[in-house]
Amino acid sequence: MKISKLGEFGIIQDLIAPEFKELVQQHMTGIGDDCAIIPINDKTSHIFTTDMLVENRHFLRGKISPFQLGYKSLAVNLSDIAAMGGTPRASYLSLGLPSDIEISWVEEFMKGYKSLSAEFNVPLLGGDTTSSDDTIIINVGVNGEIHHEKIKRRSEARSGDLICVTGHLGNSAAGLKMLLSDIPVSTANEDILLQHLMPRPHVPEGLWLAESKSVHAMIDLSDGIGSDLMHILKASGVAAHIALEKLPFSDALVRLAQDQNWEAQELAVSGGEDYVLLLTVSADAYENMAKSFRESFNSALYCIGSIEKAAPRVRYTYNGKEQDSSKTGFRHF
Ligand code: ADP
Ligand code: MG
């Protein structure tokens, strides 16, 4: 049987994770959350995450500048640290490079990587470099730190919680569509494209949310709400209701979607790489939290639905009317 039958999460769940259960020590958190967690003393844990970007699968060499790719390779990893509520400490970069890559390409890649490293004060402390046949392969690892009591896991969503996101949805998927359909870049749509090429990891928002006990579960949106919310639901043993009319879209996306006849809701649910945080929060704490979130970040903590007591599934409505829930997010294989 081919691995395509299992899919990305089937491979992880059936072929990889079970083999290591007995080696995972008490208090460690292994496969299944945005970061691995290893306690170092009675207060603090190490967290670690790693993510790979493969040419033609995650990026097209002709459609992203090396500077942007360097930035993005680190950003997607910092986003997983943000999803736990942690502080990033250092990164590790492994590169597989075809031998005909220009030196200037690597210099620009490192400049982009460095610019985000400097922004979050995260030094590059190691990695590996090798040649590859035709395609560029990039793997980044980031380790960070977090107080035990502040860790936000996927498994803590409770029935009655509200589901919130820390920023606009669908921009990255729309930016990818712009690239693939060669839509001309203008002042009206350049921000959308930029959010696909250089997503800002929501590390400050993650740290801020980690301070509150009313925030229960958290994940970063790498594969779209359809797929990423299901990770929270399965880990927590609950269901969710998403009110599609509440999904937050930038004005630029609404205009672009209208012009191109794209459905913004679909981009948000099944498109990936927005890298905003999705969290569940006690319903009674939401209003105050959203108010002080706005004071801190000058942007909204958008409520898009709620957690329900039922077997894991997402129920979608649009203005109260039940909608098709077959759109499930980006999947590899
Ligand atoms: P994310 O989108 O947050 O990066 P993924 O969906 O890629 O997370 O992975 C889900 C979980 O499976 C994570 O805990 C990740 O560490 C783990 N995982 C993925 N691939 C492997 C692998 N090859 N070996 C061990 N763990 C893996
Ligand atoms: Mg993640």
Rg, Å, rounded: 20 Å
Please bin the fraction of helical residues: 25-40%
Low-confidence stretches: none
State mean pLDDT (0 to 100 scale). Answer: 95
Shape: globular
Count every helix, treating DSSP H or I runs of 4 or more residues as helices.
Answer: 10
The succession of helices and strands, N to C, reads HEEHEHEEEHHHEHEHHEHEEE
Instruction: State the end-to-end distance.
Output: 13 Å
| Ligand kinds | adenosine-5'-diphosphate, magnesium ion
Class per helix and strand makeup: alpha+beta
Strand content: 15-25%
Q: Give the neighbour order of strands across the main sheet.
A: 7-9-6-10-8-11-12
Major beta sheet summary: 7 strands, mixed
The total strand number stands at 12
What does this structure look like?
The chain is of the alpha+beta class. Helix content is 35%, strand content 24%. The protein has ten helices and twelve strands. The chain has a seven-stranded mixed beta sheet with strand order 7-9-6-10-8-11-12. A hairpin with a 4-residue loop joins strand 1 and strand 2. The two termini are 13 Å apart. It binds adenosine-5'-diphosphate (ADP) and magnesium ion. Magnesium ion is lined by residues 34, 80, 83, 219-220, 222. The site of adenosine-5'-diphosphate (ADP) has 9 residues, from helix 1.
